[in-house]
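Bumping my old thread because nobody answered last time. Still need a sequence for this structure:
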C-alpha cells in the first residue's frame, strides 16, 4: 500500500482527495494536515510515502513546508504539490524546494491517483507541457556563455534583476555538482546505456515508457536512472532533464 499524507487547509478538499485515492485499492491516507506547520510534524510522525501538498495555507505555506520536509533526512516521502493556481512562480519554486511533482486541482481523479503512484515509484511527475516550461526557464546556456554572448551583441546592456533571479533559482534546481559541469560533454563515467536512458528521461518519458522503448525491464530502467543521477550529482529527474537539454542531448 502507498501511504499518503494530505495537506490542504480546506477540509472538503482533503475529504475529496481521500475518497478518490482510497478508491484506488493500493493507496491509503495515513494522515491529514491543514497548515504547513502541521504538515512538517505529520510527515515525521506518519512516515508517508507521498505527500499531496497545497501551496497557500496559514502559518506556513506549502513551499516552505516542502523545503523543510525534503531537507529532513529522516523523512523519505516524495512531495507532489497540488494547487489551484497555474502559476510559473509556484511551479519553479516547488521544484526548487524539492517537490517531485506539480499537479493542478482541476486534474481528474485518475490523474491524481496516477500522480501518487508515479511519485511513490520514485519518478518525477512532469507532464510534457510542464517539462517544456521548466526547460524554457532553466535550460539556457551557462551564465558565463550568456554573459559573453550579451557582451558581443549588446555590450552596454545591463543584467536585470529578473535574469539574476532566474540564474539563482536554476542553481537551486540543478545540483551544485552538476551545475559546475554545465557546458561539458556527457560525462565519461556514464555507460552507453545510461547515456541513452538520460536522453529518454530528458524527453519526459516515464520508467515504463523507457523500458518499452529499450526492450528492458522497468526495474532495470530504475537502476539506470539512479546511477545517472548519482554520477551527475543531480538531485532528481528534473535536474537531469535540465542537464541534458543544456548540453543538447535531447
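Sorry it took so long. Here it is:
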Amino acid at each position: 500500500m502507498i501511504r499518503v499524507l494530505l495537506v490542504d487547509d480546506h477540509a472538503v478538499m482533503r475529504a475529496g482527495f481521500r475518497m478518490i485515492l482510497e478508491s484506488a485499492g493500493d493507496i491509503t491516507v495515513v494522515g491529514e494536515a491543514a497548515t504547513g506547520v502541521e504538515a512538517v510534524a505529520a510527515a515525521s510522525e506518519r512516515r508517508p510515502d507521498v505527500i499531496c501538498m497545497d501551496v497557500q495555507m496559514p502559518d506556513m505555506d506549502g513551499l516552505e513546508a516542502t523545503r523543510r520536509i525534503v531537507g529532513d533526512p529522516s523523512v523519505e516521502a516524495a512531495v507532489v504539490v497540488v494547487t489551484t493556481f497555474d502559476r510559473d512562480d509556484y511551479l519553479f519554486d516547488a521544484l526548487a524546494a524539492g517537490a517531485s511533482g506539480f499537479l493542478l486541482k482541476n486534474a481528474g481523479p485518475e490523474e491524481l491517483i496516477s500522480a501518487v503512484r508515479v511519485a511513490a515509484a520514485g519518478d518525477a511527475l512532469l507532464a510534457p507541457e510542464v517539462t517544456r516550461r521548466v526547460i524554457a526557464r532553466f535550460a539556457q546556456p551557462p551564465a558565463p556563455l550568456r554573459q559573453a554572448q550579451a557582451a558581443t551583441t549588446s555590450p552596454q546592456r545591463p543584467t536585470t534583476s529578473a535574469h539574476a533571479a532566474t540564474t539563482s533559482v536554476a542553481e537551486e534546481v540543478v545540483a551544485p555538482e552538476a551545475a559546475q559541469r554545465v557546458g561539458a560533454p556527457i560525462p565519461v563515467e556514464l555507460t552507453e546505456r545510461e547515456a541513452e536512458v538520460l536522453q529518454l528521461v530528458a524527453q519526459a518519458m516515464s520508467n515504463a515508457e523507457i523500458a518499452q522503448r529499450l526492450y528492458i525491464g522497468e526495474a532495470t530502467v530504475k537502476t539506470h536512472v539512479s546511477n545517472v543521477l548519482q554520477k551527475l550529482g543531480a538531485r532528481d529527474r528534473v535536474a537531469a532533464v535540465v542537464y541534458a537539454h543544456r548540453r543538447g542531448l535531447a
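The CA atoms of residues 147 and 159 lie 9 Å apart. Let me know if any region looks off to you.
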